[in-house]
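Attaching the record inline, Q. Sequence:
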Amino acid sequence: MSQSESSTTPKSPAVGVLCSGGGSNLQVLIDRARTGELGGRIAWVVSNNGSAFALERARQAGIEAVHASAKSLGSPEAVESKLLELIERDQVQVLVLAGYMKALPESVLRRLPGRVVNIHPALLPAFGGKGMNGHHVHEAVIARGAQWTGVTIHLVTENYDEGPILRQRVVAVRPDDTPETLGTRVLAIEHDTLWREVRALLERA
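Structure, as predicted:
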């Protein structure tokens, strides 16, 4: 391909990612974007937690890493403005919540209707709602004596964990499971599922 042809090639669709913690699902998205399997590029990663390893993962991949919290920017309104600014600047097509522990402003959801996606480590509507994330979910599943759990990929709405479900995958709960062993198996399914649903959303965007 000549230099002139290269300069006129349109950029692949932009994806924004929000994280609060380690960002293992983010790493899968980064890796799949690098191979071209994701069908889009990760424009930036935003975290409400300045020490989140997800930000370091982004930096190591050459992706813009932004700490955006009420504390770092001065107010929740400033965080809202920053998110809208980044979405608009890069014409983000899909916004991914990959372990993001904050509710999104309605203005962000309105800006990307049907294109904000979240991953939850259980079979919603079971074990959903505020405070039900990560280790807490797996503890609750085992305490309830549930035989099945899994992964839910869903669109984000104003109601916490209640958006339309895109895909669910089931994981059996073993009699000897601990929250750690169960969480490890669920996370493996997350890693194999989230990027595929992001790709599907990009194809429809």
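The domain at 11-204 is CATH 3.40.50.170 (Rossmann fold). The first helix runs from residue 3 to 8.

More tomorrow.
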